[in-house]
């Protein structure tokens, strides 16, 4: 009788382990999906911000270019056109960010860094482990208890 009960408990224990493994896998998949959705939303907000900023900046650039050109022609000083060059670079960058391929190029460059220059991504003292986090937590809780 004890043998049958032991066998039954062992089967229940294995089923419980499988259930816990499946449950933790589902939880991890959900966390990965949620983090990816949050990343996508943040990138969408960044692109939307760039497009909104571009509207205001292009208006400023147009007015500045018109004013500087009119001033250069009226005063016959071509040096007044010089500020258009750096302002034009900023406009080109913002246009590329808002409607161009800047984000794709940044993604490709990041992938290249991850493959070819992985050592540049390493954290000081390496990746945190459970032991290092637990050690810091214990030290902090001891600190608060002593006060």
Arithmetic mean of pLDDT: 91
The count of strands amounts to 0
- Provide the number of structural domains: 1
Classify the beta-strand content into a percent band. under 5%
Class computed from helices, strands and strand pairing = mainly alpha
Organism: Scleropages formosus (Asian bonytongue)
Transmembrane segments: 53-73, 79-99
Protein name: Plasminogen receptor, C-terminal lysine transmembrane protein
Pfam family, one: DUF2368
What features would you highlight for this structure?
147 residues; mainly alpha; 4 helices; 83% helix; transmembrane helix; transmembrane
Layout of helices and strands, plus pairs?
Layout: H1 2-75, H2 84-99, H3 102-116, H4 130-146
Your description of this structure?
The chain crosses the membrane at residues 53-73, 79-99. It comes from Scleropages formosus. One of its GO terms (cellular component) is plasma membrane. The chain contains four helices and no strands. The longest helix has 74 residues, at 2-75. The chain has one domain (2-146). The protein has 147 residues and is an all-alpha fold. Helix 1 (2-75) packs antiparallel against helix 2.
What is this entry, summarized?
By secondary structure, the chain is an all-alpha fold. Helices cover about 85% and strands about 0% of the residues. The model has no long low-confidence stretch (mean pLDDT about 90).
